[in-house]
Specification:
Helix content is 32%, strand content 27%. The chain has 300 residues and is of the alpha+beta class. Strand 3 and strand 4 form a beta hairpin.
């Protein structure tokens, strides 16, 4: 089997581990920079060109699409789909998960537990909006932020108003979200592959920072999920149509609340924390699905 990893950097930990696992399990591995691909559109013959040659005889792709190049990356993934190539993350699911507002709307419809969140365009009454999410304190998020960037905890109404007004002045799209105090700066990252949780870790933010992202200096430890947490992670990935996903959840008094579902979750943190061969689990999933792909479709 020929499996291609779509990645702009072959030296990244996640890319290297996927290539290693693909080859260890007896398959051919390729790393393809999706930003250097050309999409060729013609009647009845969709194709992708790379380094001047058409990409052929690829059985599956593992997209590692960065947030800053979502549109072009998804166009390439979509073209592979049109060519009948199996993908661990469909283009529509990647697009859906990357839009924070859209993904929260889809998760809400699916009945997944979420922090209360408000989105408004140029709101006139900030006090009313903050009241809807039980604050202050409130969490203010940029729709386009990643890895904890563009996330602010406003502990007072005055701070919240000045922050929100400044962001709206920059024409930024902002979410106002409930602050879950009992989470104490920690969250859970559950790694879902093929409709099951294969591993999970609890991430604790560094002292003085309520954000728990490992990229922001937090630390992680392996955890066993409760039945409710496991079901929440699986349902969140399924609702967004993701076969491979990192589901971030907060532990609250009313149960697990999903913060975000990542369509290109990093492997380094979860593998080093849990000692689970996550890359191998992804390759095994591909082996199980080819040639029988369920061709699942998800609306929205």
């Amino acid at each position: 089997m020929h499996i291609a990893v779509l990645s702009t950097n072959p030296e990244l930990y996640s890319t290297r581990r996927l290539v290693e696992s693909i080859e260890t399990r007896g398959h051919r591995a390729s790393v393809i920079d999706h930003l250097k691909c050309q999409v060729m559109i013609e009647g009845g013959k969709p194709s992708v060109f790379y380094r001047g040659e058409p990409l052929e005889a690829i059985d599956a792709i593992v997209p590692r699409i960065g947030a800053s190049v979502t549109d072009y990356g998804c166009a390439v993934v979509r073209q592979f789909e049109m060519m009948g190539v199996f993908t661990t993350a469909k283009s529509q699911a990647i697009t859906r998960s990357r839009n924070k507002l859209r993904s929260l709307q889809v998760l809400s419809r699916a009945g997944v537990g979420l922090p209360k969140t408000v989105f408004a365009k140029q709101p006139r009454d900030l006090d009313q909006l903050m009241g809807l999410v039980g604050g202050p304190p409130v969490v203010i998020k940029l729709l386009e932020g990643t890895q904890g960037i563009g996330v602010v905890l406003a502990e007072t109404a005055k701070t919240a108003k000045s922050t929100i007004e400044a962001l709206y002045g920059l024409k930024a799209n902002v979410l106002i979200q409930e602050f879950i105090a009992e989470a104490k700066g920690a969250d859970i990252r559950a790694f879902v592959v093929g409709g099951r949780v294969i591993g999970a870790m609890k991430r604790q933010g560094k002292e003085g920072d309520f954000r728990s992202n490992l990229h922001r200096g937090g630390n992680g430890k392996s955890v066993c999920l409760s039945v409710e947490e496991e079901e929440t992670a699986i349902n969140a990935a399924r609702a967004l149509g993701l076969r491979v996903a990192g589901v971030d959840m907060l532990q609250s008094h009313r149960g697990p609340l999903v913060l975000e579902v990542n369509s290109s979750p990093g492997l380094e943190g979860i593998e080093k924390t849990t000692r689970i061969d996550v890359a191998g689990e992804i390759v095994q999933f591909i082996e199980e699905k080819i040639p029988a792909d369920e061709n699942d479709t998800v609306g929205v």
